[in-house]
């Protein structure tokens, strides 16, 4: 295998990992709790900007060709930590604005509007994050201290991405298999019944918005540190629907489903169309990406709304249900997959 | 795979639902877990004394009027609610005494379900008060009301369709510390023990209703009557001091209605307090005493069904010539 192909494949693997983290974060919000967070890409964008501004030196250090606030020049892993925290903290105002007092369908609209406003603000305020041009020259983690080839650095970054994926998997799995995750699924099914049983649905949704926001922020931080540039054109609102499509195709409420969707939609579809022979006017193939993704979403919503790997049934065995075997306690929290 | 509930389950439904010795609830420190359904006096004392934080809150402060009447669990006074120009409830007043099933009957549009919504916090009252266990709770949000010990069922069975029956019951039990986000991110062994105990308790409740066979079926796959039972069992897992039942027999097949009635009788006999909206008057007569009659948003009369059947106002507004 040539070094060029290997470089391409490791780059794809890094992007897969970054998307995986983002999709697992969305799965917590949408798959488990049923939050139609159409502003999801804003969390990723905020994480990206936070990582960039923490990693970049002050604008004057680069000759003033771009303008932005901050620029702290802090080393790895602080940019990624800042990205994660920013995604989590951003959930609080967005949750307060879009989720309290609004019905689920209006919540979705409010989220979408927030996404549009965020893009508009980031584009219009040139002194904030360099306006529509966006930020460039964002330092890569440990790039100054590691004397390796571009391919070697890709392998190192892939390792870092894998570690972050493992962390995201641990968070998402811990939540989805816990009594907290069960409550989130209950909120998804009936908010009024959850409230009638003594739980505050608003607080439950806020907590998972924070948890999912943290993962989105982390994915944004990783993405920015890998591509070294970030601007409003990178996180337009359709990107949110890319994540939603991946989750619906793969299967919401199922980590393996999210992983499958992360592979099939942002990687396979996008890369497949990239390798199509050129035809039509310039930009036609790029537009076809969204046509294919949109059609894919519609097909799955119509014919397989639970995705390729649907949410697993949580089978719990009780004492009276226990066959001869390892004992009641061992069997009580057993899990198995099963059809809906 | 579904299974019709056995009609002759053991009498002590409430024992399964509200056993006094529950390590899970004890560990959780959930206030309402202290109030066993079997012992109204204990429940009253626990509810009144165990939460100093809320005792200092004017919204939940002790109410001298109800505190002096230990037999009264719920006192509704001058409750009113309107939706735009429609006055759904206009100054309703009644009490619910401990250990009784109080019936709430009346024609369609009388405001019965709205009263349930007002008590449970789903709808905010325009005026009036709701004193529960010595505390003013009118205007509190649904989860706050539920934490006081009032658990409700809905006019249309409101189960968690994408959860199994057993999971539905587990959501009923709580709140407990294992449900926190921090617990989810911590060690499983910190909550798995309590979880197992809750599963055992839920299993016992299922057994009392003869429904262990559907424990791991999705609630969405059940019949309307079975959903009613799941909703009732889930409410019992919460160990309520007061159970609000909004038309528990609506859409239920006659055999299942008999089963539900038997369970409610058993619960009543063990001291559980209930307020039940119901249209089936034979059932109301069998289970409820007293019965409150509502019409056009007002309380028309109150008494036993025998008394109400001879009340001309009630006959005119609701019972008609046939008397139901």
Q: What characterizes the major β-sheet of chain A?
A: none
Could you estimate the helical fraction of the residues of chain A in percent? 55-70%
- Per the principal axes of the C-alpha atoms, what is the gross shape of chain A? globular
Residues in helices of chain B, as a percent range: 25-40%
Query: In angstroms, what separates the terminal alpha carbons of chain A?
Result: 44 Å
Largest sheet, spatial ordering of strands of chain B = 6-7-8-3-9-10
Return the structural class of chain B: alpha/beta
Q: Poorly predicted ranges of chain B (pLDDT <50, ≥5 residues)?
A: 1-61
Strand content of chain A: under 5%
Element-level helix/strand string of chain A: HHHHHHHHHHHHH
Strand content of chain B: 15-25%
Describe the structure in your own words.
- The complex is a heterodimer of chains A (340) and B (324).
- Chain A is mainly alpha-helical and 340 residues long.
- Chain A has helices spanning 3-32, 40-55, 78-98, 104-124, 126-129, 150-176, 179-189, 191-196, 201-227, 238-250, 255-274, 284-303, 328-332.
- In chain A, 65% of the residues lie in helices and 0% in strands.
- Chain A starts with a helix and ends in an 8-residue tail after the last helix.
- In chain B, α12 (254-269) links the parallel β7 and β8.
- In chain B, α8 (165-172) runs parallel beside α11.
- Chain B is α/β, with parallel strands linked by helices and 324 residues long.
- Mean pLDDT of chain B is 81; it is low at 1-61.
- Chains A and B meet through α6, α7, α8 and α9 of A and α7, α8, α9 and α10 of B.
Element layout with pairings:
The complex is a heterodimer of chains A (340) and B (324).
Chain A: H1 3-32, H2 40-55, H3 78-98, H4 104-124, H5 126-129, H6 150-176, H7 179-189, H8 191-196, H9 201-227, H10 238-250, H11 255-274, H12 284-303, H13 328-332
Helix pairs in contact in A: 1-6, 1-9, 1-10, 1-11, 2-3, 2-9, 3-9, 6-9, 10-11, 10-12, 11-12
Chain B: H1 13-18, H2 23-28, H3 40-49, H4 52-55, H5 64-67, E1 72-83, E2 86-97, E3 101-105, H6 112-120, E4 127-132, E5 135-136, H7 142-148, E6 150-152, H8 165-172, H9 181-185, H10 189-208, H11 224-237, E7 242-246, H12 254-269, E8 273-277, H13 281-287, E9 291-295, E10 298-303, H14 305-309, H15 312-319
Parallel strand pairs in B: 3-8, 3-9, 6-7, 7-8
Antiparallel strand pairs in B: 1-2, 1-4, 4-5, 9-10
């Amino acid at each position: 295998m040539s070094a060029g192909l290997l470089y391409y494949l490791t780059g794809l693997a890094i992007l897969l990992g970054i998307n995986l983290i983002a999709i697992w974060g969305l799965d917590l919000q949408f798959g488990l709790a049923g939050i139609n967070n159409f502003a999801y890409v804003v969390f990723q964008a905020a994480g990206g900007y936070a990582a960039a501004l923490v990693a970049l030196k002050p604008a004057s250090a680069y000759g003033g060709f771009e303008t932005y606030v901050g620029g702290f020049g802090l080393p790895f892993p602080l940019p990624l930590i800042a990205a994660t925290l920013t995604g989590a903290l951003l959930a609080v105002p967005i949750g307060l604005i879009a989720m309290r007092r609004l019905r689920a369908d209006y919540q979705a609209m409010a989220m979408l509007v927030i996404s549009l406003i965020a893009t508009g603000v980031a584009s219009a305020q040139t002194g904030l994050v360099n306006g529509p041009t966006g930020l460039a020259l964002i330092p890569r983690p440990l790039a100054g201290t590691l004397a390796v080839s571009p391919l070697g650095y890709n392998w190192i970054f892939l390792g870092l991405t894998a570690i972050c994926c493992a962390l995201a998997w641990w968070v998402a799995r811990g939540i989805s298999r816990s009594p907290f995750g069960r409550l989130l699924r209950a909120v998804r099914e009936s908010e009024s019944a959850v409230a009638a049983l003594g739980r505050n649905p608003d607080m439950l949704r806020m907590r998972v918005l924070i948890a999912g926001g943290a993962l989105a922020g982390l994915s944004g931080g990783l993405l920015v540190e890998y591509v070294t540039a970030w601007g409003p054109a990178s996180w337009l609102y359709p990107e949110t629907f890319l994540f939603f499509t991946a989750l619906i195709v793969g299967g919401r409420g199922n980590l393996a489903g999210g992983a499958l969707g992360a592979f099939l939609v942002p990687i396979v579809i996008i890369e497949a169309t990239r390798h199509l022979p050129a035809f039509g006017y310039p930009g036609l193939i790029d537009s076809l990406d969204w046509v294919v993704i949109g059609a894919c979403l519609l097909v799955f919503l119509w014919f397989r709304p639970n995705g390729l790997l649907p949410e697993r049934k949580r089978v719990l065995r009780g004492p009276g249900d226990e066959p001869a075997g390892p004992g009641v306690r061992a069997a009580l929290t057993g899990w198995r997959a099963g059809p809906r | 795979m579904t299974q019709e509930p056995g009609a002759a389950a053991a009498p002590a439904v409430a024992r399964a639902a509200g056993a006094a010795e529950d390590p899970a609830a004890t560990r959780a420190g959930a206030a309402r877990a202290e109030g066993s359904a079997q012992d109204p006096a204990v429940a009253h004392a626990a509810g009144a004394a165990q939460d100093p934080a809320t005792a200092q809150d004017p919204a939940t402060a002790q109410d001298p009027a109800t505190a002096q009447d230990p037999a009264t669990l719920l006192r509704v006074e001058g409750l009113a609610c309107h939706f735009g120009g429609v006055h759904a409830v206009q100054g309703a007043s009644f009490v619910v005494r401990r250990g009784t099933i109080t019936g709430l009957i009346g024609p369609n549009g009388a405001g019965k379900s709205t009263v349930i919504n007002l008590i449970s916090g789903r709808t905010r009252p325009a005026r009036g008060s709701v004193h529960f266990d010595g505390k003013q709770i009118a205007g509190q949000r649904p989860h706050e009301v539920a934490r006081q010990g009032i658990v409700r069922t809905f006019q249309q069975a409101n189960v968690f369709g994408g959860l199994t029956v057993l999971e539905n019951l587990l959501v009923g039990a709580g709140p407990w510390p294992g449900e926190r986000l921090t617990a989810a991110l911590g060690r499983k062994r910190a909550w798995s023990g309590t979880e197992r105990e809750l599963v055992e308790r839920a299993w016992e409740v299922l057994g009392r209703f003869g429904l262990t066979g559907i424990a791991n079926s999705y609630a969405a796959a059940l019949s309307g009557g079975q959903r009613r039972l799941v909703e009732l069992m889930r409410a019992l897992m919460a160990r309520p001091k007061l159970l609000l039942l909004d038309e528990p027999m609506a859409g239920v097949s006659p055999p299942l209605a008999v089963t539900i009635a038997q369970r409610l009788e058993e619960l009543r006999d063990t001291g559980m307090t209930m307020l039940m909206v119901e249209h089936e008057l034979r059932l109301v007569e069998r289970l409820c005493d007293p019965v409150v009659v509502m019409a056009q948003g007002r309380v028309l009369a109150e008494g036993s069904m025998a008394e109400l059947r001879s009340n001309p106002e009630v006959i005119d507004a609701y019972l008609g010539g046939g008397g139901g």
